[in-house]
Design brief:
single chain, alpha+beta, Thiol Ester Dehydrase, Chain A, 5-stranded antiparallel beta sheet, globular, 1,4-dihydroxy-2-naphthoyl-CoA hydrolase, DHNA_CoA_hydrolase, HotDog_dom_sf
Length: 150
């Protein structure tokens, strides 16, 4: 199997849109968390994971999923404001905590300068019993491969 560079699925770029700003013309704080989730989803897709096998949808009954991955903690730090048209780089650094949880660390950069960070902790649970369970094979592989030579 060909060795892939994790940067292919862990570093993404985006441009700030008008609808993501508040009345002061600055990105609204909640957008960072939305961008984090979108970055994570895109990362999983680029890695080769089919999203509907990980996240519930109207096409799949939640009881058909092996695990659910709820957020149990999140926090953000903002160092500079962002405005419409700003281009930013989002770097994702996943870290496995134990057999049932992981944290997604995000660094937001503009022109090479770090302008914000977030971390979001997920726990793997059985979607029916809501009890902690082991992470799926797909997520474990993504976490393992994401930690190699970044």
């Amino acid at each position: 199997m060909e060795k892939r560079n994790p940067r292919e699925w862990l570093c993404l770029n985006r441009t700030v849109r008008f609808g993501e700003t508040d009345a002061a013309g600055v990105v609204h704080f909640v957008e960072l968390f939305r961008w984090c989730h979108e970055t994570w989803e895109e990362s999983l897709e680029k890695f080769g994971i089919v999203l509907k096998e990980i996240f519930p949808s109207t096409q799949i009954n939640t009881s058909q999923l092996d695990v659910a991955l709820p957020v149990v903690h999140c926090e953000a730090n903002y160092f500079q404001p962002l405005y419409v048209g700003d281009t930013i780089n989002i770097e994702l650094y996943p870290e496995k905590i134990n057999e049932s949880s992981f944290v997604l660390l995000f660094k937001f950069k503009k022109n090479g300068e770090q302008i914000g960070t977030t971390n979001i902790k997920h726990v793997s649970i059985n979607p029916i019993t809501r009890e902690k369970c082991a992470l799926s094979k797909q997520i474990n592989l993504w976490l393992h491969e994401s930690g190699l030579n970044f």
